[in-house]
């Protein structure tokens, strides 16, 4: 499973990508919205994880665009900027502070939802 992480803090990106890689995922990282969209277009990830405060990013528009494309999205933030949940379960929000286990559980749940939806779509 391929995941794209977007956060303006390089240390956080390093920590999160390492966590995901230890779980067997591949992870690409983006520091801004332009890099996020480039990676999304190039790699068609199974999951996108992004910081709600990513510079030059409209969270509402981005969340709609990503989930419309049937790509699960995990948004990380302070709780003050939580996007509205999508009815299809492809959008999840995790407020700081959270544990590494919570982070991995949310990512795994969204990936499982995507797999379930793909199996259902092909039946």
Question: Secondary-structure blueprint of this entry?
Answer:
Layout: E1 2-6, H1 10-22, E2 26-30, H2 33-43, E3 47-51, H3 59-68, E4 73-77, E5 91-95, H4 100-122
Parallel strand pairs: 1-2, 1-3, 3-4, 4-5
How many domains, in number, for the residues? 1
CATH class placement? Alpha Beta
The CATH superfamily is Response regulator
Beta-strand percentage range: 15-25%
Cα radius of gyration in angstroms: 13 Å
Average pLDDT for all residues: 86
What is the 3D form?
globular
Q: How much helicity do the residues have? A: 40-55%
End-to-end C-alpha gap = 22 Å
Strand-pairing-aware structural class: alpha/beta
Order of strands, main sheet, comes to 2-1-3-4-5
Task: Quote the CATH topology.
Answer: Rossmann fold
Poorly predicted spans: none
Number of strands: 5
Topology pattern, helix = H, strand = E: EHEHEHEEH
In short:
Helix content is 46%, strand content 20%. It is built from 4 helices and 5 strands, in the order βαβαβαββα.
Question: How would you characterize the overall build of this protein?
Answer:
A five-stranded parallel beta sheet has the order 2-1-3-4-5, with helices on both faces. It is globular and about 35 Å long. It has a single domain (2-122), classed as Response regulator (Rossmann fold). The mean pLDDT is 86. Strand 1 (2-6), helix 1 and strand 2 form a beta-alpha-beta unit. With 123 residues, it is an alpha/beta fold. Helices cover 46% and strands 20% of the residues. The protein has four helices and five strands.
């Amino acid at each position: 499973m391929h995941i794209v992480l977007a956060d303006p803090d390089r240390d956080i990106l390093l920590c999160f990508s390492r966590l995901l890689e230890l779980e067997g995922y591949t992870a690409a990282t983006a520091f801004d919205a332009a890099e996020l969209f480039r990676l999304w277009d190039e790699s068609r990830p199974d999951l996108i994880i992004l910081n709600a405060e990513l510079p030059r990013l409209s969270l509402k528009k981005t969340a709609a665009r990503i989930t419309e494309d049937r790509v699960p999205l995990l948004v990380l933030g302070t709780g003050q900027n939580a996007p509205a949940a999508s009815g299809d379960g492809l959008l999840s929000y995790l407020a700081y502070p959270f544990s590494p286990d919570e982070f991995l559980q949310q990512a795994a749940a969204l990936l499982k939802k995507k797999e379930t939806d793909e199996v259902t779509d092909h039946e």
